[in-house]
Amino acid sequence: MKKILYIVIAMFLSIAASAQVDRTVQPKPGADPKINLGKPQQFTLPNGLTVLVVENHKLPRVSFTLTLDNPPSLEGEIKGVDDLTSSMMGNGTSKISKDEFNKKIDFYGAYASFNVYGVSATTLSRYFPDVLALAAQGALDPLFTQDELDSEKAKLINGLKTQEKSAQAIARQVRRTLLYGQAHPKGEPLKEESINKVTLADVKKCYKDYFVPENAYLVIVGDVKFADVKKLVTANFSSWKKAPAPKSSYSEPVNLKASEINIVDVPNAVQSEISVNNLISLKMTDPDYFAALLANHILGGGGEGRLFLNLREAHGWTYGSYSGIQGDKYMSDFTAQASVRNAVTDSAVVEILNEVKKIRTELPTQQELDLAKAKYIGSFVMNAEKPQTIASFALRIKTQKLPDNFYQDYIKKVNAVTLEEVQAAAKKHMSFDNTRIVIVGKATEITPALERLNIPIKYFDKFGNPAAKPEVKTVSGDVSAQSVLQKYIDAVGGAAAMNNVKTVSLSMKATIQGQTISINGKQTADGKSLQEMSAMGMTMMKSVCDGKTGYIIVQGQKQELAGDELENMKKPIFPELSQLNSDKAQLAGIENINGADAYKVMDGNSTSFYDVKSGLKIAEETTREANGRQMTTRTYLNDYKEVNGVKFPFKHTTNMMGMDVEMTTDYLKVNEDVSDADFK
């Protein structure tokens, strides 16, 4: 009864207070919040290692990060030695084997990560002395062996191969290569041949030269006492020999004199990866640093940015379009990017350029600026008093040569930025007339429309080397959609054998990030189908169609199928049989599919690719609308095997979020193991 009374009183006071507020008048902003940033305690060892300590006794945990703030360096012909050295660190020492080292880390319930740029670890405070000692051993006495190098080489090369057909993966590297150049630390492309050139001696030299304490900072945060930390660090890191980090000699790149489009051809790409770029020299100490950050947020800093509102909300071309800019003591860059389907690549480029031009030439609205300021201040206030944030601030003050009061005055500096300063910063740091527009995608499909923009176009390979313009192959006059379909039908076994296939039952498996996914499917010639995906013994998704209606269940939630989704479920086992006697299928040219020429046959929202030589279907695409935009998915088909007189592909490879997922068929049965009960 008393609890109810308290609730009634609270409601009454809330209503009374609301009645006294005039909601037609915007409340005046309050005073800036005051942030009390504690300063970490610090000391420096004779070898040059600087240690920053933030005591926080709320939880019995400690985290520490060793950062080597070395200048960028070139790797040259052995590009990849940094990656290999990093991957081999943390795998034991000259005194402790790899297995024993990892067992000790696990015993303490700790996490530890090592690379040639530093070390990070987290542990309970009671185990901090032991984990710090282990981390010091792993960092200062790493074990490098030929077997480990060979293993890490294979992993790195395999990673490259899995991404070599991914437009997203190619775009991430080639953008930097084209912008900075191959002879710049930020632009050096990673290749299989350079990885293979790395020797064990190269790895040991890389570690010896670059893992030095000259520019090293050890930040320790958590349930520790400064006096104890000083003793522990001195005991564990004093043996680290004082040495300077080497400095590479290279030329700094410059921006283009006039805008140009750089196309990197990825023939299998179903969408274009667009980035509009220019080099900048923006330091955190520059007077227009905060104005540049706010200008970037207004342009493309999030869901409220102009790029997002234009390309996604207004046009539905992409899931998101964003821009990025950051202060750095070395050269950095500005970029505005989006991933769009091939058909609207030219239009997306125009709209991105329009938004860049607009923020350079017109003042933003006060509402946009206020929203951007609120974002930065809100994020700053939420994180400012966390021990980890205080430590990172202190580290940045050291590495970026910031004034001691930089973060103390952060809010004041953000609030002081004017509309005019935002426009001036955008004009200075965001290029329009001399921007590099990098597009990774299917050149033959996107080039004709891009040529109409009257911006010079150059072609490059995925390593940033100049390349020739891809040729569009013409189809012989005696080839038609029907002749292509007939050749496929003959190649897989003939119409009679295909018509004899009344049902198909199959099971496939795929591995995604180490997790095995099982897919079971059943299909009938009269349009019934079942698909079920499971992982870890649980059904993740199930879709069923009885030939007329259908539904899908995802994590226990059932939804009826309709429209294109239902029609796709009702498709026959071999659609080519019906397409052969229809004029809906149209021949749309020849395309290169994984190095082989293939005829492209389109039918509605589906496209199939048939190998010119063998006649077999080697890829298929489906375009559907999702969340207000069209999305195209391509699947590659190979490893054909004959079952009951008909050849079926036993491997299906689909690119999902930039990663190729290969599904391998365990078994495929024809005219057995299927009943009407499966489609209820």
Low confidence ranges? 1-21
C-alpha termini separation: 53 Å
Shape-level CATH architecture of the largest domain: 2-Layer Sandwich
Number of strands: 25
Please identify the structural class as seen in this structure: alpha+beta
The CATH topology annotation of the largest domain reads as Cytochrome Bc1 Complex, Chain A, domain 1
Highest CATH level, the class of the largest domain: Alpha Beta
Biggest sheet statistics: 13 strands, antiparallel
Number of domains: 3
Name given to the CATH homologous superfamily of the largest domain: Metalloenzyme, LuxS/M16 peptidase-like
How confident overall, as mean pLDDT? 90
Helical content class? 25-40%
Tell me the Rg in angstroms.
30 Å
Percentage of β-strand residues: 25-35%
Shape: globular
Describe the structure.
This protein starts with a helix and ends in a 10-residue tail after the last strand. The strands form three sheets. A 13-stranded antiparallel sheet has the order 18-17-16-15-14-13-25-24-23-22-21-20-19, covered by helices on one side. A six-stranded mixed sheet has the order 1-2-6-3-5-4, sandwiched between helices. Strands 9-10-8-11-7-12 form a six-stranded mixed sheet, with helices on both faces. The protein folds into three domains: 41-237, 2-Layer Sandwich (Cytochrome Bc1 Complex, Chain A, domain 1), CATH 3.30.830; 260-460, Cytochrome Bc1 Complex, Chain A, domain 1 (2-Layer Sandwich); 481-679, outer membrane lipoprotein receptor (LolB), chain A. A hairpin with a 2-residue loop joins strand 19 and strand 20. The radius of gyration is 30 Å and the shape is globular. It is an alpha+beta fold and 680 residues long.
